[in-house]
Specification:
The structure is a homodimer. Chain A is mostly helical. The first copy, chain A, is built from four helices and no strands. Chain A is elongated, with a radius of gyration of 17 Å.
Chain lengths: 108, 108
Amino acid sequence: MRDIKWTDTERHIARRAYDAALESALARIMSTFKAKAAAASQPSDMWAVEDYLGRSRRQVDETFDYRYSQLLLVFARLIQERHLEEAQLAGLSEEKLATIRSMLSRGR
Amino acid sequence: MRDIKWTDTERHIARRAYDAALESALARIMSTFKAKAAAASQPSDMWAVEDYLGRSRRQVDETFDYRYSQLLLVFARLIQERHLEEAQLAGLSEEKLATIRSMLSRGR
């Protein structure tokens, strides 16, 4: 993947898709966080929210990696986690889309 | 403080006061936590709640120490932080209450 070339247009498409997926991931965390916080009634519920936020923050940090050497793998993962649809990547080369599909079919 | 003797009655009074103060501290954290969570609108607000809960949990762990060698200091601190009133310690020996008052007057 390191040798794949990205045109300016592709970089633009990738950036937009990446930002939209990040926004989707954060919105999903926010929604779960708010529901858990509103339902909390015991101290242990508060600490469970703290743990949930910590896990979520680490997961976001691990998933969202904008290095071009990692980006196709990142996109495959984001599609798998339903933060991204393949249609948002329209305009990337057929080779890149095929690589992403191949990763998805291998369940990565 | 290590040599102070505690009667059974005093241990009972201390335990009840300690538990009430812990409940008060946790209730205050819960209330602030719920308000912050309800007001959160940006991802940074969520991470701020995570930090708040982490700080609060550490503070509770540090403050609440039921060793008899530490208990008068703990009670002084809890009175200072308004989780406890001296009246809840009625029944402890005058020597113990004087020690607590002395700690409070030194601002510890």
